[in-house]
Amino acid sequence: MVGFKNENINPRKRKTTDCVIRAITTATSMEYSQVLLGLADIHIKTGYHMSDKKNYEKFLNNLGWIKHKQPRKLDGTKYLVGEINQLVRPNQRAIISLAGHLTAKIENEIIDTWDCRHKTIGNYYTHPKDEYEY
Fold this sequence. Notes:
Elements: E1 3-6, H1 19-28, H2 32-46, H3 53-62, E2 66-68, E3 94-98, E4 101-106, E5 109-112, E6 124-126
Parallel strand pairs: 1-5
Antiparallel strand pairs: 2-6, 3-4, 3-6, 4-5
Helix pairs in contact: 1-2, 2-3
């Protein structure tokens, strides 16, 4: 199981509904404001809210991230966030969607404001490169 690191990268340390921005910022190492502006730009062009899946998926796709469908085990059960290393390399970065939330995995840790390792993975996103320069 992956570890958990409680970290809030919101620039003002606010506990707010910015998980999409925080997860993408964490996984890509981009600046929070750069992710915020990128999502806002897509929002202006498409009308989809910044935290809407259609918006952030377009943003991630533009950065070269690959979407993976919800994974299932051989017995049909779903994977938990804490089991993400069964799907990706331990040192690979991932952005993981779960019901109403987005989180990030770096190295062998989920980095977020709360421990969501017991929740079910929806889709997840990986990048083919290990180095990130945006």
